[in-house]
Design brief:
alpha/beta
Length: 425
């Protein structure tokens, strides 16, 4: 690593740490003023944002990036409006900072509670989605944190413009611009420095592909909120409503292919396979989805005239495609379905389609994932859909934060003691 990169990152860290103190004491009104300013500016500058983003998109295409990558990188009018709506939703959320749990009087006379406080400085390392710049900064600001954003080189122009909009909002509310900083260099050694800056950064949130997350898991010294894979399953139970199953499973796979909450493996109970698979798989094939199937599924589909099926391999059950490809397995019962999810799932999001309340209860209790759903598309595993305003990421870890991480996930608790002159004897 060059000394100039190291010096730059250390300077960014120092300024973020200083700004974090101002953010920790910022009022809810100040923080909301920032977010409303950003929302208005995003809408007013939508044309400019798209024009700058198009530069990034054309560069990515010239570099040979695939369709899923381009989809994540592209900012459309809908994407921009969703960012603005997310900001407004975060404004409407209750500010968690400074809230104290009900005080409990102890035998000594002291009263004990816990106060919610910011984590401090959050470092976010992400790849192609420029909307993360707005979503992540907004959540960090509302929760009283400073943030260092290191986006991918492919979105550098989009991220720079969005960061400028955010900093203008901070200045308008009398808060330090250094509360949100974007790392301007595309040099990858900046990431290596960032993930070891324990004196300045309290937590790292990586948003990107497996190679990025795996690298950070191996090298980071700063704690992380993360998930590695999004191998999401839907199990169609024997007691499912067929029309509902078709509608939900179509949406779970085809509404968008690139997000981490898209369904990658469909599990179907053998008792209902003949009723649901032909209708559902015709929809998939009409939409250009490649079907990778086990032997029982192949027999069911071929008996209904289906062709162009691919034999599923062991690797397919372990794959997050992020593409129009779906693995399908026919299972004997709910136990086989849950065993498959336990063996191959990534503890991200899994769903059951059933009218059997006992099976639904078992699935909710026994499937060890960050989000578990009954009769709903896995595509709902998202901060915006969960009413969090947006999300800083999805965590499938079990400590601190799990599932879509919103405001509370970016805070911690400290004990507060209210005394009346008590002394310990």
């Amino acid at each position: 690593m060059s000394s100039s990169i190291q010096e730059m990152m250390q300077d960014i860290g120092k300024r973020a740490r200083a700004a974090s103190r101002a953010m920790a004491r910022a009022s809810n009104e100040q923080k909301n003023q920032v977010l409303m300013h950003i929302a208005a500016a995003v809408r007013q500058q939508a044309g400019e944002i798209q024009a700058v983003n198009q530069v990034d998109v054309e560069r990515a295409k010239a570099n040979g990036q695939d369709a899923a990558f381009i989809d994540r990188l592209t900012m459309t009018p809908k994407t921009i409006e969703t960012m603005a709506l997310g900001l407004e939703q975060i404004v409407s959320l209750e500010d968690p900072i400074g809230t104290i749990t009900p005080l409990k009087k102890q035998a000594s006379g002291i009263e004990l509670g816990q106060m919610r406080v910011p984590l401090g400085v959050i470092g976010i390392i992400y790849e192609s989605r420029p909307n993360v710049t707005i979503d992540a900064a907004a959540l960090c600001l509302k929760s009283g944190n400073a943030v260092i954003l290191r986006g991918g080189s492919e979105a550098i122009d989009s991220n720079t413009l969005l960061a400028q909009i955010i900093q203008e909002g901070l200045a308008a509310a009398g808060l330090p611009k250094d509360a949100v900083q974007v790392v301007s260099t595309t040099d990858r050694s900046a990431v290596g420095e960032m993930i070891t800056m324990t004196q300045y950064i309290d937590v790292i949130v990586p948003r990107g592909g497996k190679s990025l997350i795996a690298r950070l898991m191996a090298e980071a010294r700063v704690p992380m909120i993360k998930h590695l894979d999004g191998i999401c399953h839907t199990y169609i139970d024997a007691d499912a409503d067929v029309a509902m199953a078709v509608k939900v499973c179509d949406n779970a796979k085809t509404q968008r292919y690139a997000p981490c909450n898209a369904m990658e493996t469909l599990l179907v109970n053998q008792e209902i396979a003949q009723q649901v698979l032909p209708t559902l798989c015709k929809i998939y094939q009409d939409k250009g989805v490649e079907l990778r199937v086990d032997e029982m599924t192949r027999k069911t589909l071929e008996s209904n005239g289906f062709k162009n099926l691919v034999d599923a391999t062991e690797e397919d059950w372990q794959s997050e495609y992020l593409a129009p490809i779906l693995s399908i397995k026919t299972v004997a019962n709910i136990d086989e379905a849950m065993n498959h999810i336990e063996q191959y799932g990534s503890k991200h999001t899994d769903a059951i389609i059933t009218n059997n309340q006992a099976h639904a209860a078992r699935f909710l209790r026994e499937v060890d994932s960050a989000s578990v759903m009954v009769n709903a598309s896995t595509r709902f595993a998202d901060g915006f859909e969960y009413g969090l305003g947006a999300e800083i990421g999805i965590s499938n870890d079990k400590l601190h934060a799990r599932g879509p991480v919103g405001l509370d996930g970016l805070t911690s608790l400290k004990y507060v003691v209210m005394g009346h002159g008590e002394i310990r004897t």
